[in-house]
Amino acid sequence: MNSEISILSLFIDASLLVQAIMLLLAIASLVCWSMIFARFSYFRKTISGMEQFEDKFWSGIDLSRLYTEVNGRIADASGVEKIFHSGFKEFIRLRKQANMDSSMVMEGTHRAMRVTLNRENEKLENHLNFLATVGSTSPYVGLFGTVWGIMHSFIALGSVQQATLAMVAPGIAEALVATAMGLFAAIPAVVAYNRFANNANKVAGRYDTFMEEFSGILHRQAHARPETAA
């Protein structure tokens, strides 16, 4: 309880600039934590949905049936499901057109999946830039507040005849709180950025692998005779 009152009193007694820096760092920390929880939930849902879909996809289910299932819940579909949906939809559309050879069908199908893949990769990287920015700049912002607070304290000592530790300590303590808050905002942001960036790379790699494997399946169907194509 005393530590809470002490920190609050240090914030109240600090200069306006140091107070503004502390408030900015506190807001940045709150925003980071909200993004961390949101990203954690997003990746957990994305990875779970991807694994469930891949299990069903490789179980030998009919692709037309699987497409119908995904199409019925496309708004809530996972990234890999949307890649499958866009590719199979374009594949069906192009095969129905007259005078459309297999290479043109596959080119259009691959292009449709690539567009969806890029869109889903952008979702994977959402908020990561903000976390990286907070993680890299917060310590320096806090250090600036510390330097300013210490400078302000020593300038105030110039008006007294005899300086004591009791006179300097409160100002230095106020300044050091800014550094502590900068580290408090930066450390979770850096850890979260590294974790989520690694997850994004892994999921993006699995997206790309699935797209290539699915393209191979569709390529065989595109070159099969119409009466034997699935």
Automatic annotation (TrEMBL):
Cited InterPro entries: ExbB/TolQ_transport, MotA_ExbB_proton_chnl, Tol-Pal_TolQ
Keywords: Cell cycle, Cell division, Cell inner membrane, Cell membrane, Membrane, Transmembrane, Transmembrane helix
Stretches assigned to the MotA/TolQ/ExbB proton channel domain: 80-207
Subcellular location(s) of the protein: Cell inner membrane; Cell membrane
GO cellular component terms given for this protein: plasma membrane
Topological relation to the membrane, as annotated: Multi-pass membrane protein
Any GO BP annotation: bacteriocin transport
Pfam families in UniProt: MotA_ExbB
Transmembrane segments: 16-38, 128-151, 171-193
Superkingdom classification of source: Bacteria
NCBIfam families linked: tolQ (TIGR02796)
Family: Belongs to the ExbB/TolQ family.
Oligomer status and interactors: The Tol-Pal system is composed of five core proteins: the inner membrane proteins TolA, TolQ and TolR, the periplasmic protein TolB and the outer membrane protein Pal. They form a network linking the inner and outer membranes and the peptidoglycan layer.
Function: Part of the Tol-Pal system, which plays a role in outer membrane invagination during cell division and is important for maintaining outer membrane integrity.
UniProt name for this protein: Tol-Pal system protein TolQ
Organism of provenance: Pelagibaculum spongiae
